[in-house]
Every structure is written in structure tokens, then in C-alpha cells.
Probable GTP-binding protein EngB
Amino acid sequence: IHLSKATFTLSAPDIRRLPEDTGIEVAFAGRSNAGKSSALNTLTNQNGLARISKTPGRTQLINVFEVAENKRLIDLPGYGFAKVPLEMKKKWQKALGEYLEKRDSLKGLVVLMDIRHPLKDLDMDLIQWAADSDLPVLALLTKCDKLSQGKRSAEVLKVKKALATLNADIRVQAFSSLKRTGAEQADVVICDWLAQ
Ligand code: GDP
């Protein structure tokens, strides 16, 4: 499996419009502006694959990318952006919740968090939910190029410790789309999930 083979399949406003729920999916989730689109572009080696948001909170659709037959990457709507009307926020949260709860083909969750402020309430909710559902998690601590090597390691350790209490299959990796830090490690984990 090569993530660089990813091609855009469709954008869906809700889970009913997604491709048939067969095969394997790895989903990407994170607060708006966490660096999700950039990470998808980095991991697939395709600059234009996911649109990098000029206005945070604009990605409201579930975007589907096919990597191989019945192997998909799912770009879930970003959450937690303050300047969005409550009604809209509720709609996205609902789409996100529905997807996570109902999608049988979901076999791994990549959670993107800015390394400078990880583990916000909604991040924790998501990771806790994955842990309760026995879904493996890869936590990517994004934009790590913004921290010194020392601070980076300290942040990774802090997050690892906090998540270890959940006793679940959770990996934590410092990541930078700018420098490709952690891209190789993330690629191995995601391809491993997709290859099942
Ligand atoms: P999304 O809303 O989660 O999809 O986030 P985006 O990928 O659109 O990125 C949000 C902002 O963070 C953009 O201005 C990106 O250029 C910036 N960004 C994303 N990844 C990195 C990174 O690895 N390093 C740095 N320095 N900036 C990044």
C-alpha cells in the first residue's frame, strides 16, 4: 500500500452519502487549524490533495480519498472552531459522531493536535471514545517545527503519559508537514492499518 496513490473520491455532507461501508478506512480528525489538511498532503506526497484552509473551520464535509481498492483515507470535518454559528457546529459534530459510531470499515484513527496545545477537551473526548471502542489511535503532534528539540520531546512525553492512563492502543508522534518530521513513522502505522 502506498499513500501516494491516494485519489479524491468524493465529499459527503453526511454518512449516508459515503461509499459503501466495506473494506478498510483510516480517518483523520482534529480541531480546525490543527494541520490536518497539511498532514494529508504530506503523507500522500500530493500538495493539492486536501485543501489547506485559509479560513479555519471551513471544511465541513467528509472527504474521501481512495488509496487502493476498498482502502480509504477519510478527512473528517475539523472541530472546535469558535467563530462558527452554534447551529453549524452542531451539524458538524453530529456528522463526526455518526461517522465514528456507525462506520464498520473504520480501523484506525489519526488525531491531529498542535504540539503547542494538545489534548483539549474535544480531543480527549475523541480519543476516549476511540479507546472505549477498541479503535487504535495515532496521535500526531503537528507543527513540531515550531518547538525546539527539547520542548518537542517534553511535549511528546507529556502526551504519552496522559494517554497511557487510558490503557489503549495509542501511539504518539511528533509531526511536521513543513519538515516532514514523523512522516515516515506515521506512514508505517497507517499503511499497517490499511493492509489488514
Ligand atoms: P486544518 O484546518 O487542520 O486542515 O489545518 P491546515 O492544514 O489547513 O493548516 C492550518 C495552518 O497551519 C496553515 O496556515 C498551515 O500552513 C499551518 N501548518 C500546517 N502544518 C504545519 C507545519 O507542520 N508546520 C508549520 N509551521 N505550520 C503548519
In short: The radius of gyration is 15 Å.
